[in-house]
Amino acid sequence: MNCTNAPSESDAYPSPKVIIYSSKSRFKTGQIVATHPAIALLEETGFTATQLLLDHVAGRWGDVGTQDAEANEFAVGNGWRVLSVFRLVSNEVLASTPKAKRSALKTLWVITEADRSSTCILTPSCY
Description:
The chain is α+β, with helices and mostly antiparallel strands. It has helices at residues 36-45, 49-58, 66-78, 91-96, and strands at 31-34, 82-87, 107-112, 118-122.
């Protein structure tokens, strides 16, 4: 699935306005968007965008390394870009997969822009 192609009329998704309220939110998301391949992967795996977004804004960055987690903590307080990496597999599969091989798992990134104008859910190949 090409990240730059708009979905065809037959598989187009409506664009409802969605506001996520959470008392645990550490930063604003701005407009929330998702690429077509990300939506398809969510549907395929049964994960929800809402849960990924709630984890993201609460500072649960998913499967990022120590340096990225530290960068996110700095970014939240200083207005930089925030990145979360979510592996769309069970906790058991994630725990049994060596870190060096986790990039092969079904993965979505959630990126909030530095100016907090938008947050995008996307596959790594769409970055």
